[in-house]
Amino acid sequence: MNASDSERIAAIFEQYGCSSVSDWKEADVVIMNTCSIKQSAEDRVVGKARAMSQYKEYNPDLKVVITGCMAPRGDAVAKATGVDVVITIKDLAMLPQKLGMQKPTSDELAQNYFSIAPKYSSPFQVYIPIMTGCDNFCTFCVVPFTRGREYSRPMIDILNEVEIALRNGAREITLLGQNVNSYEFGFVELLKKINALPGDFWVRFVSSNPQDMSTELIDTIATSEKLCNYIHFAVQAGNNRILKRMNRRHTIAQYLALYDRMKEKMPDVGISTDIIVGFPSETDEEFQDTVRLMEQVKYDMAYISKYSARTNTPAWRMKDDVSIDEKKRREEVLTTILKRTAKENAESLVGQTRKVLVEKIGHRGQLVGKDASYRTVSITNTVDESLIGQFVFVTITKSNGLGVDGELVTEFGI
Predict the structure, then answer these.
(1) What sign has the CA pseudo-torsion 280, 283, 289, 293?
(2) Could you tell me the fold of the domain covering 353-412?
(3) For residue range 123-148, what is the model confidence (pLDDT) as tens digits?
(4) What's the predicted TM-score (pTM) here?
(5) Class of CATH domain 2-98
(6) 8 Å CB contact between 379 and 367
(7) Helices 215-223 & 187-195 angle (0-180, nearest 10)
(8) Where are the domains of the chain?
């Protein structure tokens, strides 16, 4: 979401005749698009914003802006950091005016967040928001307080943006939302309409909540040519009591039933998850339920976090009674399981030929991309940079940890 928001910010300022710079010290305006999912992230923003504000001693004309998830705190954030403007994402279109910039004569200036035509950072991988906010109020989460309640974008606007992106060469469309499954106008219908559009492209989406996952959605992914067989399926914990304290509205039995459906319909589906360890009152026995879940599901990726209290969330009033050392231990246990199961999953692909979207030159000097199940694939027998942004076929030769190595077979599409 933050990447997509930043693309819209860039587009707004380009309309006002601005361009980006590589070093913030050379800028006239610095915009910090913030995330506050963890306290540590918010602390880093405050420290960075203070440093930027102090730099005005050398550049008195510098303006510092905070937007994103910290913005709803408004005055408190400005007081703590000395920034010039704090503005919510939904009010982005008004930011240049708040900075005193002269309005261009163009009649095409956007009036709201969703109507801003983004400046995509990649010509072939495009992020398109379909909704924002969340109504679930998980006890550990600040999103309903920072992003607000759920708001769904009209389907026709989404389809128009997808069609424009495809005409401009997009190969991969990722639909974004805090909970895409609860898209007001019918998420399955939206996916079917995008899948029916002409062209050779993939469709992904994040994030999805198990309580809103349906067998219809799973079946649609399994039977649609362009929908990638990858699902981010956030469980958060493997114990029902802890899930209830988190205000997560699924049980482990329900979660596993949906998982079984995914594997039945898409045997090679890629599944990732989010897990919090050390939630208030989580016992070691309850943590072992999460261990067993990890062993059973064999995730391809898991984003494992140590619980940290977020101010004004319901969990903030709970006693944070799991020590930091125990949280670290539990995190290490799950990380060890993840490395093993992801490696086993990757090794099962050896000998297969997979369709891959080439993304970049990786740190090993090889072409790197993703397959449909979102596994990272390194191509070992060519460094032809003209393949970046194109689909190719790759025969998998070995695993390399969480990802795989393979050899280019033949170029596909353009």
Answers:
(1) positive
(2) OB fold (Dihydrolipoamide Acetyltransferase, E2P) (2.40.50)
(3) 899 999 999 889 999 999 988 888 88
(4) 0.85
(5) alpha beta
(6) yes
(7) 10
(8) 2-98, 113-347, 353-412
